[in-house]
Amino acid sequence: MRKLFVPALLVAMALPVLADEGDDNVQTDVSVATAVGTVSVDKDSSKAEEYGEVPEGFYIKKFGVGFDWKDSGRHMNLWGKNVRLNNAQYGFAYEQEGKYKLTIDYGKVPHLFSKDAVSIWTETAPGVWRIPDSIQTAIQGLNDVPNTDPTYQAGLLKQRLFVANMIKDADQVSLSLMRDRGKVGFTYSMNTAWKYGFEYFQEKRDGRRPFGTAFGFSWATELPEEIDYTTQRLHAGLEYSKSGTTFAAAYDVSLFRNGLDSMTWDNPLRITDRTYSAAYSNGDGTSQGRVALPPDNNGHTLSFAAAKNIGQSRLTGSFAYTLWTDDVKLLPFTINTAITADLPQSSWKGKMQNLSANLGYTAHFGNGNFTARYRLYDRKNKGDHFESEHYVRFDQVLEDVPIEFEPWAYKNQNFDLDFGYNLGASLNWHAVYSFNSMDREHRDVKKANTHSFKTSIDSRGLDWATFRLSYQYSQRRFDEYDLEGTYAVVQLLRYDEANLNQNLLKANVELAPGDKTTIGLTIGYGKDEYPDSKFGLQEGKTFDVGVDLSYDIAERSSLGLYFDHNQLNAFQRSRQSGSTPSTDPNADWTADMTDTIDTVGFNFNTDLKKDRVGWNIDLSYAQADGDGDLFSPPGGTPDIARSLPNVDETKLISAKTGLNFKLFKGAKMGVGYWFQKYEIDDYIENELRADYVTPVPGPNPPFALTSPGMIALNAAMPDYTYHVAWVSLSYLW
Asked: Which residue in 63, 425, 707, 733 has a CA-CA distance of 20 to 30 Å to 682?
């Protein structure tokens, strides 16, 4: 019934004007396209329907109803797409030309994470995940001893193996989100110069998604996070435009509400709470875990924009002020009743101020033009101060280590000078200088400046060929890098702050050798170097090349071919260390990561019978090949780096063909077939399962627990193969 509500409502909105259909001054257009589909699945995966279901059976692909009152300048339109499917969209518009316009839109946006997820937890209330007390009691009884007991390790392994057996019979859980989005807009014009606008938007997001948690370094857990988000936005604004002068002012409100303030889940190893120094590693102190979820928050934005023509020049500017606030009731340090420490404060108020401004000036003279632009984005963090003399790690152990909230903030300024000149013979030259200044608070680098120089030349005046060639060099330098603690020994510089030399080269060519053929060629190369970074990202490279060809075989037949090759490479260096930072170069590890993506496609369209029968074919093949070449030098610690030959290696094969028949005036029928095959070979995806508890033979009988424990959701997105056939019928009257 709910699936029918929106389309029924939109149709009902049209009923008042249907009585005018017989009026000669009203033009009515009605169209509908339906289909009956059948689906055959060789291998199934959520990847196939991640953002929308593959329809099966009868469904309405799209419909449209339009009314035009010829004399009065009124128009009304109703439309729908994927009716009753989980990615349906609907719209309504009614306007009086030059006066007002009302629009209503509604759409559904799904996200299916996995069809294979399982969990040993049961959600007893929204955001509360439980294991029966009797099971927790039984598991605790297998090892209810201090970690100093000689039998502790063997008992801990027994507990985890018990959990591993539970996972074998775990219940399936849903992992998907649905976003219901609606928007109402209204504009009104008093005259040709002034326009007022109003818009209201609401999105309701419900469902579950994977959520990573942990009871300790050696006891990680993954659960479904219950989502209950509501986002509302309100916009009101006015615009003025006359004789080369424009002005706009607007006020926007954004309201985010989360129906849940926290998430709680049971620890399968414990039914009662305790704490001891190593519990943060073994994960068997607390009987429950709890985390805070995103809090409610409000945003307000006031903005202005203006532009003015001054002779052959134009001056533009804009200004916006945004205020984000929230008022959060803080959770206690821990849900573990064995730890009694109190928070220094019970609430926290957040306040973020964003100031943005743009100023531009463009002038034309002779064969040239000049543009100057300035952009400012200033984010100030005015949230409450928070500090504590200690904190609780993983709900397990109270650590006497001071913590402090650091209100990150930054100011980003850009200044650009752009000069263009017509060299004649259809050649244009551009030169651009850009300066960026980034000031940060509570980051390793307080100030960094980037200088960029770009030049390009292009030709667009030839009938048979156009081209564009550009080169850009950028250099970023920081004033001082604040390295503390471990980083003072192992000098790891973050790549977004470190000194950078960047080179970018791009070329585009379009050829039209004759009236029937067009050819496009693109090539690009980029290189990022971090000259002063001993560790972290050392170098990044990108290379891409593309070719596309279209050819008109005959008057009603054409074909197209395309090929794209993209390669990304990143070289990184790190140092293996224990609790004390290492100074041994033999402990350095390197990683040479490469991703190569190739795509090739073919399409063909023809009329088998002029204006009566059409045939089309679309074929595509895409392949991503990832490699991770890891190296640790002999004699290093631990000297066991292992390369990763299969990093996100995927293949996607798609083939689609269809015949379209014109039955009679306004009526068309189609038959078609679609095939898609997806394969993935990834070192993470291949091993993704619900249980990572592995008993390993060791020196202390019966086993030594040398591998960590983990309970995952088995939220895999494996291979799939789909065959879809359909018959469609459309009519326009």
From this structure: 707
